[in-house]
Design goal:
- The chain contains five helices and no strands.
- The protein has 145 residues and is an all-alpha fold.
- Helix 1 packs antiparallel against helix 2, helix 1 runs antiparallel to helix 4 and helix 2 crosses helix 3.
- The longest helix has 35 residues.
- The protein is globular and about 55 Å long.
Length: 145
């Protein structure tokens, strides 16, 4: 369930990230387009899937560390998963921006979008797997008696 939850979380994060980062630029271009029936809507969906795969590749190891901590601590709350997802997103962005180098700094709006992306990923992960964090460590009822 952990990998399924992670997979759906990065797809949701990619969809939100692609919408959040490019919707401003596509707003004028796609003003009169119905996204349900056009090739442009399909292309935006495919960009979201690609971005989800890219986000998943960058965030895989930090996310697995965060997931392992949440599993071992049995943090099953939605708020805990939201916060851990947001912190994971900020960590990945911090590591990526420090490894790229240069004088570029992310704008405040971009950081907010990335933080919200982590929150969405944390929520989707919680829906699929986080609600039962650490349940595999619970003793069966017949052994406890």
């Amino acid at each position: 369930m952990i990998l399924i939850g992670f997979t759906f979380a990065v797809i949701a994060a990619g969809m939100f990230l692609s919408f959040g980062l490019v919707s401003e630029y596509f707003a004028e271009f796609f003003a009169d387009v119905d996204p349900r029936t056009s090739i442009e809507g399909v292309s935006i969906f495919m960009v979201g899937i690609y971005m989800g795969l890219h986000v998943g590749a960058m965030a895989f190891f930090p996310a697995m560390i965060v997931i392992a901590i949440a599993e071992l601590m049995r943090w099953r709350g939605m708020i805990a998963n939201l916060l851990l997802g947001g912190l994971n997103a900020l960590f990945v962005v911090g590591v990526m921006s420090s490894t790229i180098g240069g004088d570029q700094k992310l704008s405040e709006n971009t950081l907010i979008i990335l933080l919200a992306t982590g929150f969405i990923a944390g929520f989707v992960y919680w829906v699929f797997a986080g609600r039962k964090a650490g349940a595999w460590m619970d003793k069966p009822a017949e052994l406890a008696a």
